[in-house]
Amino acid sequence: MVLTKEYRVCMPLTLEEYKIGQLYMIARHSLEQSEEGEGVEVVENKPCEDPVHGKGQYTEKHIHLSSRLPYWIQAICPRVFYVIEKSWNYYPYTLTEYTCSFIPKLHVLIKTKYEDNNGSTENCLDLTEEELKVRTVDHLDIAFDDLSPKHYKKEEDPKFYKSQKTNRGPLIEGWRELDKPIMCSYKVVHASFEVWGLQTKVEDFIQRGIREILLLGHRQAFAWLDEWHGMTLEDVRDYERQKQAETNEKINNTSGGANEAAGDAATPNNADDDVD
Questions:
Q1: Check: CATH 3.30.530.20 for 3-250?
Q2: What predicted TM-score, i.e. pTM, was given to this entire model?
Q3: What average pLDDT does this structure show over 126-146?
Q4: What distances in angstroms separate CA 253 from CA 29, 65, 133, 257, 261, one per listed residue?
Q5: Selection from 222, 16, 191 nearest residue 115 by Cα
Q6: How far apart are CA 22 and CA 81, in angstroms?
Q7: Alpha-carbon distance 66 to 81, whole Å?
Q8: Most exposed residue of 20, 59, 201, 250, measured as fewest CB within 10 angstroms of its CB?
Q9: pLDDT 10s digits, 210-260
Q10: CA 109 – CA 98 distance, rounded (Å)
Q11: Which domain of life does this protein belong to (predicted)?
């Protein structure tokens, strides 16, 4: 059965502010997380259009993360592989899909909608009755939920950060009921890995990983508020292109040799070689 969770992440921002802050955060975070041939490589980033949602932006990314996986997943994966992320952003609605060519049974679908409230809409993404029966809701608190120690930085902690430009923060207990402006990111995550013996463990790992990155990313978007506040959409798209070029160069400079080796190992002449 597909594991379905709905994450609700409130931010002390307006919808229009969040649109800019999210793009800035993703571009900067991707560059910071890219090292030693691993990270997020942007393959495509172009305008798109949908008959229902209108004009938007399509992106395709390759997420290189072999060494960051638990040992029990590394044991069944080649040394060099990547997850494919395809995203259609029709703000305030987005659709994101994750697949992996090496693991065809893996599929993650994320539907997101943003609203000007504190997470009070019970069925923001119009789930069916069947989906509602299996859905669990998780309200993330960017200030008071525990973040992994390896990701924690005091200067990015909303309990201590104060914006000089907007005078927002630090966030205190109950801020989601008290602070204005307020908006919420509603994310429904369908994660499936239909392999007997591993399904529950992998699906749970996926959901825990998504929760951690949502918490980290939204904390950073708020803590970096003074760096992106005042940017126009054109400004942040220019910033995004610059950081994407830097990120791709960083990954390709260190992973080129490894990718060639992986390609050689995939040829018929090496079909009998052991895979670590």
A1: yes
A2: 0.85
A3: 96
A4: 19, 16, 48, 9, 15
A5: 16
A6: 27
A7: 6
A8: 201
A9: 999 999 999 999 999 999 999 999 999 999 999 999 988 888 775 454 444
A10: 7
A11: Eukaryota
C-alpha closest to that of 58 among 84, 28, 88: 88
Residue 132 has φ and ψ, to the nearest 5°, of -65, -30
**What is the spatial distance between Cα 184 and Cα 13, in angstroms, rounded to a whole number?**
9
The DSSP secondary structure of the chain, one letter per residue, reads: --EEEEEEEEESS-HHHHHHHHHHHHHHHHHHT-BTTBEEEEEEEEEEEETTTEEEEEEEEEEE-GGGS-HHHHTTS-SS-EEEEEEEEETTEEEEEEE-TT-TTEEEEEEEEEESSSS--TTTT---HHHHHH-EEEEE-TTTS---GGG--GGG-TTT---TTT------TTHHHH-SS-EEEEEEEEEEE--TTTHHHHHHHHHHHHHHHHHHHHHHHHHTHHHHTT--HHHHHHHHHHHHHHHHHHHHHHHHHHHHHHHHHTSGGGTTS---
Q: Is the omega angle on the peptide bond into residue 92 within 30 degrees of 0, that is, cis? A: yes
pLDDT for 37-79, tens place per residue?
Answer: 677 888 999 999 999 999 999 999 988 865 555 555 545 555 5
Q: What distance, in Å, lies between the first and last C-alpha atoms of the chain?
A: 30
The token pair at 16 is 């229009």
The residue ranges of every structural domain in the chain are 3-250
